[in-house]
Write a structure and sequence with these properties.
The chain contains seven helices and four strands, in the order βααβααβααβα. The chain is of the alpha+beta class. Bound molecules: ribavirin triphosphate and magnesium ion (MG). It is an enzyme of class 2 (transferase). Its cofactor is Mg(2+).
Length: about 140
């Protein structure tokens, strides 16, 4: 299996709940290494640019406003099968439908305030990592 990198964001709801460490611990105990990280308070422009693929969707405005409502913790995770592994640890988009023991089942309140973001494939992972860590390819 290939070693991959994926982009993860701990969203404003989970940062406000003070569970960054608990979520990091799940990455670490499941073989995902944090190879870059930074905390940021995104502007609407930055959040909108990040979620540009969703710009025609009815939930786009709420998503952008939520993602810029408070600080987020952004990280690059590395490990075998990291993209799918992270999505598995996150659980379904709607926490009501997320499997027991997943991050969203344990820390998310609603489909809007759903604790974490994770890249959904190799192409998006590449673009999303470059969006927040433009200099990462230097190491
Ligand atoms: P994410 O991109 O944040 O990791 O979430 P995801 O892949 O599980 O879900 P995605 O379809 O990419 O949607 C991005 C975010 O938009 C919000 N959303 N709301 N009301 C709705 O039907 C709806 N659908 C999506 C969610 O907050 C989701 O995380
Ligand atoms: Mg997505």
């Amino acid at each position: 299996m290939a070693v991959e990198r994926t982009l993860s964001i701990i969203k404003p709801d989970a940062v406000a709940k003070n569970v960054i460490g608990k979520i990091y611990s799940r990455f670490e105990t499941n073989g995902l290494k944090i190879v870059a990280s930074r905390m940021a308070w995104l502007s609407e422009r930055e959040a909108g640019g990040f979620y540009a693929v969703h710009k025609e969707r009815p939930f786009f405005k709420d998503l952008v406003s939520f993602m810029s409502s408070g600080p987020v913790m952004i990280q690059v995770l590395e490990g075998e099968n990291a993209i799918a592994k992270n999505r598995e640890l996150m659980g379904a988009t709607d926490p009501k439908k997320a499997d027991k023991g997943t991050i969203r089942a344990d820390f998310a309140d609603s489909i809007d305030a759903n604790a974490v973001h994770g890249s959904d494939g190799p192409d998006t992972a590449k673009v999303e990592i470059a969006y927040f860590f433009p200099a990462l390819n230097v190491f």
